[in-house]
Design brief:
With about 230 residues, the chain is mainly beta. Helix content is about 10%, strand content about 65%. It has one helix and ten strands. Strands 1, 2, 3, 4, 5, 6, 7, 8, 9 and 10 form a ten-stranded antiparallel sheet that branches. The radius of gyration is 22 Å and the shape is elongated.
C-alpha cells in the first residue's frame, strides 16, 4: 500500500516538466469534513467536524473527462451515546448504564477519481484507499444503581493509539462541484469506507468491560465541503 503514496509524490515532482505536453494540471484543496459512524447497531451516532487539505493532479483524457488522483490529509471521527438497563459487575439486579464515545481519527487518503465536466458543473467518482495515522478516543461511562441510594459512578478514560483499528481501509467517493473561475472551484462530496473501522473483537485491547459491542462493526463515512485552486489555469 505505501507504494501508492510514493508513486503519487513522484507524479507531483515530475509534473512541472510534463504539464504542457500531457495536459496535466496541479492544484491544492482545503475543506471541512463532517464524519460519523455507519452501521445499524451503532448507538445514536453523531457527526464530528474536522479539517481536510490535499494535493491533486488532473490529467485530461478528453475535452470533458479527466483522471484526478489526490493525496488528502483529513481528520475524521464520530460520537456515540449508548443507554441501557443491564446487570453490572457483582449486582444481580438491573442498573442504568450509559456510555458516550468521542473519537478523533487522522488519515492519509488516496482517492483516484474520474472527473466529468459539462459547462461549469462537474462530478467526480472513484475508489479510495486510506491509512490511519493516529487515533484518539474518549469514553465516558456512567453506572447508576437505583437500589443503592441512587449511587452514580461516572468515569472517563482516554485511549490513544491505532492498535484497536484497521490501519488500512478501502472505500469510495462521489461528489459534485461548480467551477466558479478557471482556477477556482467549490465541491461537495460523500465518502464512505467499506472496511470495518475496528479490529476483530478477539484483538481488542480495551481494559474496560463496558465497551459496547455495537461499535465493533462500525464503518466511517463523511460529508465534505471543499475549495480547490488549480495552478496555471487559464
Amino acid at each position: 500500500m505505501p507504494h501508492f503514496y510514493l508513486s503519487f509524490v513522484g507524479l507531483l515532482a515530475a509534473s512541472t516538466a510534463v504539464q504542457a505536453q500531457h495536459a496535466l494540471q496541479i492544484g491544492v484543496k482545503a475543506g471541512l469534513n463532517a464524519s460519523t459512524y455507519q452501521g445499524k447497531e451503532v448507538p445514536d451516532p453523531a457527526y464530528r467536524f474536522g479539517p481536510a487539505v490535499s494535493l491533486f493532479a488532473r490529467l485530461a483524457l478528453s475535452e470533458q473527462v479527466s483522471l484526478q488522483p489526490e493525496l488528502v490529509y483529513e481528520q475524521l471521527g464520530a460520537s456515540t451515546d449508548l443507554h441501557s438497563m443491564t446487570p453490572y459487575g457483582f449486582y444481580s439486579h438491573l442498573v442504568l448504564f450509559s456510555q458516550q464515545t468521542r473519537s478523533r481519527l487522522r488519515y492519509l487518503s488516496l482517492p483516484v477519481l474520474v472527473r466529468g465536466q459539462v459547462g461549469k458543473w462537474f462530478a467526480v467518482a472513484g475508489p479510495q484507499v486510506s491509512y490511519l495515522v493516529s487515533a484518539q478516543e474518549r469514553v465516558t461511562t456512567l453506572v447508576d444503581d437505583p437500589y443503592t441510594y441512587d449511587l452514580v459512578y461516572p468515569f472517563t478514560e482516554t485511549y490513544r493509539g491505532t492498535g484497536n483499528y484497521h490501519r488500512w481501509s478501502a472505500g469510495g467517493v462521489i461528489g459534485v462541484g461548480y467551477q466558479m473561475l478557471p482556477h477556482l472551484a467549490v465541491e461537495f462530496r460523500y465518502a464512505a469506507a467499506v472496511t470495518k473501522l475496528r479490529q476483530p473483537t478477539s484483538e481488542l485491547r480495551y481494559d474496560t468491560p463496558f465497551w459496547p459491542e455495537q461499535l465493533w462493526n462500525a464503518r466511517i463515512s463523511s460529508l465534505q465541503a471543499q475549495v480547490s485552486y488549480i495552478f496555471g489555469a487559464r
